[in-house]
Amino acid sequence: MADTxxxxxxxxxxxxxxxxFGIYTLGDHLPNPNDGSRVSTKERVHExxxxxxxxxxxxxxxxxxxxxxxxxxxxxxxxxxxxxxAQVTSTMRIGSSSTIISTSDPVRVYENFSTLDLISNGRIExxxxxASRVGLFELLGYDLRDYEELYxxxxxxxxxxxxEESVTWSGQFRAPLNEAEVIPRPVExxxxxxxxxxGAPGSAIKAGLxxxxxxxxxxxxxxxxxxxxxxxxxxxxxxAGFDPATLPITTAGFFHVAETSQKALQNTYRxxxxxxxxx
Length: 279
Description:
By secondary structure, the protein is of the alpha/beta class.
């Protein structure tokens, strides 16, 4: 009998890490809802770096920064900012809250994040996303009608690059690779790569069938909806021969602490609503 696949090893995770807590941003650059003021883009970028420093000082396990290519965001070059964050932190894991693989070249993404991993001494993680805001497709020269196909093909290539130092591959949306050596390689041979799932079971099932760790964004709905997505993910993983107990799952969403739920909503509603109406 063949050995059971070990996704923890394949994607650079260590068994027994337990429950971890982190903080993330997609790079929002919004006006203050109280007075309409907005800091400069320069200041906002430096705020991201200071947020990461504060997160490490507070003892959090992870800080994530994503990309979004439109107005009211400031982290279009999120890998560059993560390089700065890697220099001012030393213990906390850092990475992308979403790298839009659909509109990026997987070879370049791997080169960038492997280099970040070397700079950070092995602390980098990569969340491969497909974009909930779709303006970047036209901006970067892609057809929105290829939304699903772009993501699946490019994620498949990214994962193959992560597994193999010499890559032979062909697909629809970029030139083929013939025994291509993609370097540099990360500190621990393979990057920690997650598949971003927006909450729908279909994408979670694909993650489970591939044995890929899942980041599940809470975009809307009750907790029970997301519980069904987790169940579908684990069932698909088991069906494909993976041990679901070895596959890490991350959830991502808004979080604020107050004495009561009503007080928490009162404190945060104006700021959350600003993001919703602007982006």
